[in-house]
Amino acid sequence: MTMSSLRRLARKARRIARRPVPVTPKPPGEPTLKSALMEEAALARGYGVTRLDARIILVEAPDRVIPFQDMNGPESSVVGRRLCDHKFYARQLLAANGLHVVASILAWSVREARQFVKRVGYPVVVKPVDLARGKGVTTDVASDRSLRAALVHARLGRKPVVVERQFEGDDFRFFVIGDRVFSATSRVRANVVGDGVSNVKSLIERKNGLRRQNRYLEGYLIPLEIAELTALRRAGKSLAYVPGAGERVHLRDQSNLSAGGDSIDVTDACHPSFKEVAVRSVAAIPGMTYAGVDILARSIREEATAENHVVGEVEYSPAPIANFPVMGSPRDMAAAILEYYEGRIRASG
Questions:
Q1: Where are the alpha helices (DSSP H) in 33-182?
Q2: Rg for the chain, CA atoms, rounded
């Protein structure tokens, strides 16, 4: 075959790759929220959308069909996902790229976990190596007895468990696209604020009523079972407790919104150095060009230093919390992702 023939075949292959893909989709079921947001953003731009199932759509952008699973498109690699999902591997990559992380160990036994704690001291955090949304996580572990219980809760024995020195700071989720931070959100542990009259149970029910009006938070209500309200129990309080006017009562240890936490947009309040940390964190994970970055910091209004923050993890498929903050301006993550791919298409000619 001559060189000119090879070139003709290559041009033909490129033309075929840019055509809409003829498909006969299966009944999709109820779309996931992330997938629905991507579809809405594409339709708002006048693009055709083919839905294959609850999570996968094909967006017919100019000259290109872009496939998405939830909000992850062609530039979110399988390898990148595996690295993000394995918290310990991701932390090693972050540290190797000069980012500040907490001391931690991948423990295969209670003995290994105890040896690590002897070196770093209590309190520590225990978490599964590959679960999300705060599942299996125990914070404020401060004794050998509670360490053993936390290891069981994190499924030690089935898989290794991450044990890390606890860093005291507020929890922030940055969403990075390419070389910029699109949004920053403060995630506050589940809490209620007293009015001097209502008990904790009534305050939770009132707050859950507001969460039901939030498209994302409606699926993550604050539980009313005292066994689930770990911070409330540790403070020696019950659902019948009546907080004073303005008194804030923390209910759970996890700051995840899926655990009942609040989301507050702080994008415009961030010191530029924290945005740089977030961008570098995504760049440290091969195969990822956009992702969520979790940072614990004492304050994001001041310059980032080795003492005032740590990078917790990189999220391959972050929840669309920037779209639906409890406080602050909503920011359309799906539209920003589509804009990113539009730019990549223009750049490729």
A1: 33-44, 78-85, 87-96, 110-120, 144-153
A2: 23
User: What's the whole-number average pLDDT of the chain?
Assistant: 90
Q: What would the two tokens of residue 165 be?
A: 């020195």
Structural domain span for residue 194: 190-260
Q: Do the domain assignments include residue 289?
A: no
The H-assigned helical ranges of the chain are 3-18, 33-44, 78-85, 87-96, 110-120, 144-153, 200-211, 230-234, 272-283, 333-348
**Residue pair 314/288 in contact by the 8 Å Cβ criterion:** yes
Q: Model's pTM, two decimal places?
A: 0.85
Summarised one tens digit per residue, pLDDT across range 12-57 is 444 544 444 444 444 557 899 999 999 999 999 999 999 999 999 9
* Nearest-angstrom CA–CA distance, 169 and 311: 11
Pick the closest to residue 286 from 41, 86, 110, 123 (CA basis): 86
Q: How many domains does the chain have?
A: 3
Cα-flanking dihedrals φ and ψ of residue 87, to 5°?
-55, -35
